[in-house]
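dumping the sequnces here before i forget
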Amino acid sequence: MERVAIIGASMTQFGQRDAWIRELLAEAGEACLDDAGVSPLDLDHLYVSNMASGEFEGQTGVPNALAHDLGALPAYTQRIDQTSSSGGAGIYAAWQSVASGASDLTLLVGGEKMTHETTAEATDVIASLTHPVEYKHGLTLPSFAGLTARRYLHEYDAPRESLAKVAVKNHRNGVDNPHAQFRKEVDVETVMESPIVADPLRLYDFCPITDGSAALLFCPESEAKQYTDEYTVVSGIGGATDTHVVHERDDPTVMGAAVESSELAYNMAEREPEDIDVAELHDMFTILEFLQSEAVGFFEQGEGWKAVEEGVTDRDGDLPINTSGGLKSKGHPLGASGVAQAYELHQQLLGNAGKRQVDAEVALACNVGGFGNCVITTIMEQA
Amino acid sequence: MSGNSKFEAHRCPNGHLSYPGHPRCPECAEPQDETVDLTDRTAEVVTWTTSTATPPGVRQPNHIAIVEFDVDGDSVRAIGQLTTDGVEIGDEVRPIYADELRDPDAGIREKASQEWDGYRFEPVE
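..and the predicted 3d for all of it:
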C-alpha cells in the first residue's frame, strides 16, 4: 500500500474568536491550500472534522458550506464526528481516501466554535456523549477525570504534584506557540492552589474552552514532490473504540483504545515506542497525559508520572511530549484538536517549529474522544 | 419518566455481568437474558470525586462514585451520585432511591429520551 503524504498544514489562532464555524474553517482551509500552493479546484475530497456545530451554533452541513466558500466545488465532502477525536478520525478518513486511490488530493479541516456558550452549557454539550445512566447523575468529562485521577494516585502512589507538573510543562511549551490560547507560564503552587473542579483535580488540570481550526492537505507519497519539497508522511495510523459506559472498563487507569490504536499504528509503520522522538498526547486533563504515555508504550503502567517528574518529557528531555503546549495551553476546539496535533508534528519534522524545535524524525499523535471512548493514533515521519 | 427506574445488572448465558444492560454482552456478544436486582445489595467505593463545575440542572457540588457490587462471587460496577461527601475508597455504600437526580428540563438532552430517577449511594454505618 502506498504511503500518504502531508503536503500542507495550517492552524488558526486558538482562543476566544469572534469568527463563527464557517469563517474559522475557511480561514484554516485557505491557509493550508496556500501553504502547499494548491488550487481548491484541484481537490478531489474535502473533509470537515467537527463534533457539534449544530448543538453549539445551529449550523449543520458545514462541509458543503466550506466547499462552496473555498471554491472547492465539486469536491466530494463529508463531516467526520468522533466527538473530541474528530480531528484524528478525520486524518484516518483522509488517509483512507488517498491510500485507497479514491482521491489524489484530500483537504481536511477541523474546527469548533465554543466560547459563545457559558462553561456550564459547553460542558453539557460535551457531556451529551455520555450514556443515559451517566448523564442522569450529572457526569461530565471533567468528573471522569477526577474519578480516574483519584484511582491513579491511589494505585501507583503518585504525588498530586506530579499532575500539576504536566500543566506546568505544557504551559511552558505554550509560551513559544504563537497560536496558543494561553502563552503564560504557571508554577506548581498556582496549579495546586487553583479552585477544585473535580476533586482531586483543579482548574489548572483542565484545558480551556476554545474556538479554532486547523487543516492538513494529503496526497499519495509518489505525487508529493510535484507540489512541494516540504512534506511529511503518515507511516502508520490506527483507531479503536472502548466502552461507552466508562465504569464498565476492567481497569479505570488503562486507556484500552489507546493501547489498541497505537499497536495498529506501530504495526503499520513498522515502528516501536522506542522509535518515537516527539509526541502530542491528548491532555484535555493532566491525568490523560499519564494514561496515554503508558497506553502507547512510552512508559510502564503506573510509571508515566515519574517521567514527568524526572523531566523526560520536557522539551529538552529524551521524549518531548506536547511541544505545542498541548490542549492544556494551546486550547481544545474539539474538532480541530487532532488536526492541530498533526500540524505541530508536521512543523517539528520539517524543522519549522521555531523556538519549540526538537530533534525529531519520527512522531506520534494520540487523539482521544470521550474519556478514552474512541482513540486515533497516528505516526508521522520525515519523508 | 419518573419513579420506574430499575437498578439491575444484566447477565448473559456465559455468566458475564454488566450494568447497565446492553442488547449484546460486551464481553462475548451473546444476548443478555437475565437480570440481577442490585437495590438490596451493598457495594464498595472504587473511586470518587466531587464535581464543582456542573452542567445546567445538576446539583452543585455533585459527589459521585464508581462502586463495585459482589454478585455471587462475580463483580459488577455502577456509577452514581453519593448522598454525602466524606466517602473514601474502600467504604461500603448502599443504593438509595431518588426520584429526580437532575432537572430534566435544564440540560441539552431531550427529556423524554431517558429516565431521570435512580439510585444514589449512601455510606453504610
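Chain A has 15 helices and eleven strands.
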